[in-house]
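User: Could you go from structure to sequence for me? I need the amino acid at each position, not a summary. Structure tokens:
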């Protein structure tokens, strides 16, 4: 397939590190040096699905296609207020889309998983045009009393439109199931057979272990995918890496021995927006005119699961 449109949408409230240090035992100095984050967009009176609809419509507008042209809609989302129907249906209702659709929950690498699925459906001859939207509000997963997690996240939505083409050179998904490193649990309703004894558990993270996993998953995943498709890292124009922590990105750059100016970053303004991170970065770079036709772009993301994935595209 080939990406012919990108879009993104952000909540209007911007929370700086200084604002966080007014009610948390933290500081701009700690957050900046440990993560590279300076501020993040946080959902307040917006609805998550409105951000999803806005990002999707911007991507469609750029693509020149209309909702009636889309054959499949894939939404990547970790949490939302809609348990059922999926967020894909809620967004589709807003934008007047009625093709087959589904949600996936593959945490931060959700965009790469969605790209892989779109390509598989396309290669199977089932679709020509696919809309992917990654719609995330991780600020509503963390406890805002927990300085070790809540400072890391920001909300937003990113979308792409894909059509027939030969520009996805390869995708590689990876899983190392290990569910106590990064998780959140919700209590379901009581039944006559199960008492609602537990409490919800907000996002929990073993930061250092996730950090190590992230660096290894990205460097190994990207290397093996580039080997598989026969492209040298020196021929890659842009490495679009999940914006979880600037120090993670710096470690990846060190391991891969690639010039750092080939790693665009926007983490300073967004924090970690889960699966929306890569498509928001893609859209920002695209709208700034960073990509030239023929550029080789590597996408890589990692997160809860523990899941990771990489993709190689020709722009
Ligand atoms: O999407 C993928 C999901 N997540 C990630 O990729 C995150 C991966 N991990 C990380 O990015 C880093 O591990 C963190 C940014 C989460 C933490 O950085 P760290 O260098 O690993 O710090 P740490 O957890 O080892 O904590 C060091 C100290 C601790 O204090 P003590 O025990 O040394 O006294 C923490 O309590 O920093 C303290 N700390 C803070 N201090 C000020 C933790 N959070 C904060 C904070 N402000 N916000």
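Assistant: Here is the amino acid at each position, in order:
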């Amino acid at each position: 397939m080939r990406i012919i449109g990108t879009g993104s949408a952000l909540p209007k409230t911007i929370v700086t590190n200084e604002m966080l240090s007014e009610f948390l035992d933290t500081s701009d100095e700690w957050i900046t040096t440990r993560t590279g984050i300076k501020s993040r967009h946080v959902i307040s009176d917006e609805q998550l699905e409105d951000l999803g609809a806005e990002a999707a419509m911007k991507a469609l507008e750029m693509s020149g296609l209309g909702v009636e042209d889309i054959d499949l809609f894939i939404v990547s989302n970790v949490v939302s207020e809609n348990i059922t129907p999926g967020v894909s249906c809620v967004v589709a209702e807003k934008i007047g889309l009625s093709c087959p659709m589904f949600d996936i929950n593959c945490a931060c690498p959700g965009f790469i998983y969605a790209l892989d699925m779109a390509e598989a459906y396309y290669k199977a001859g089932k679709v020509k045009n696919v809309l992917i939207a990654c719609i995330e509000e991780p600020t509503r997963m963390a406890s805002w009393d927990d300085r070790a997690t809540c400072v890391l996240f920001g909300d937003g939505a990113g979308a792409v439109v894909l059509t027939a083409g030969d520009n996805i050179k390869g995708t590689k998904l990876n899983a190392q199931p290990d569910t106590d490193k990064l998780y959140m649990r919700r209590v379901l309703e009581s039944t006559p057979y199960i008492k609602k004894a537990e409490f919800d558990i907000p996002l929990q993270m073993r930061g250092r272990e996730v950090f190590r996993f992230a660096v290894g998953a990205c460097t190994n995943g990207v290397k093996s995918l580039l080997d598989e498709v026969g492209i040298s890292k020196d021929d890659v124009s842009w490495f679009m890496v999940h914006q979880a922590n600037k120090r993670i990105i710096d470690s990846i750059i060190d391991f891969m021995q690639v010039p750092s100016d080939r790693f665009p970053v926007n983490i300073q303004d967004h924090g970690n927006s889960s699966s929306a991170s890569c498509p928001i970065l893609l859209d920002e770079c695209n709208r700034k005119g960073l990509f030239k036709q023929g550029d080789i772009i590597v996408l890589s993301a990692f997160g809860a699961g523990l899941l990771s994935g990489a993709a190689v595209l020709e722009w």
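One structural detail worth keeping in mind: The chain has ten helices and 13 strands.
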